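note to self — DONT lose this again. spent like an hour looking for the file last time. sequence + predicted structure for the chain T wanted, 335 res
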Amino acid sequence: MTAGQKRLVVVLGAVMAVAVGLRTTGVTLRAQTAWESYKNRKYPPSVDKHLTDPALIGAIDLHAHSDPDSYPRSWDGFEVAKLAQERGMRGVVLKNHWTETAGLAYLARKYATPGFEVFGAVSLDTPVGGVNPQAVRYMADVVGHFGRIVWMPTHDSEPEVRDEVRDGKPSRPSVIVSRNGVLLPEVLETLSVIAQNDLTLATGHVTPAEAFLIMREAKKRGVQRMIVTHPTLGLGGTMTTEQLQEAAKLGAYIEFTAGMVSREGPRQAQTLDQIRKVGPVMCFVASDSGLPGNNHPDALALAARALRAAGFTEKELNMMFKDNPAKLVKLPVLP
């Protein structure tokens, strides 16, 4: 038997051993994905309402979902950029839970909206290897260098997957960021890579306790800009008002989604109160749009109107829609 044949026998034996191990432990080869449940949902068609507001002129949406994606989105990245540009906005950050979008931002700038600020990001979920420093390095180096935000795990975060337990077992793989109150080594390395590339950190859908571990370590490692990802939406856990204030003292900007601000009810009242208590100087409003429904500028316009009706001043609206988002993507604040 030649050396090559021996190597082939070893490889085949290893593959068979793995297959037997998976079968005997009950592990399926095709794990369910976070996007599976969205595929067959029925959505009404999205209609552009052409809403506008003074707060949109020069605004930047830091949380804009778009196609191409693995489940229904109402608009593709080019269309989102065009809608925002037509409404007088200054820029958008395209977000995808499963892949980097710096490349899409480059293409949108070149072919859809020349002169308009389109940025990309990466979410550290399972398709990019979880909390993977190499995924961040790649996003930072994509042609154009339009990558700006790194989200810690979102829909694949351990607490979000834990909430979907079936028959006593997790329904799909998750991304872990800490064990016993200690951040994992890959999280530490990733925070260093974020700092080295002067990127913006977003906490994603981790627990509040993990978010604080991440933010404090990020500051130690030189990360200059931090976002607490919609911390009252309940994905991964909900921060209290006191925790929001504590995060702001660490220098993190608190994200509130347009729907939370504009939809009437108890959550809206709570959201408005939290913005007042944290202070607009450390808050921003993002659409988090992309599923069929209100498009991105329409959602932001509704949020701006709700804030104004609640007594927030034009100066405060400018902070939350324009100035703070500009700082978080390294753009100058316009006079």
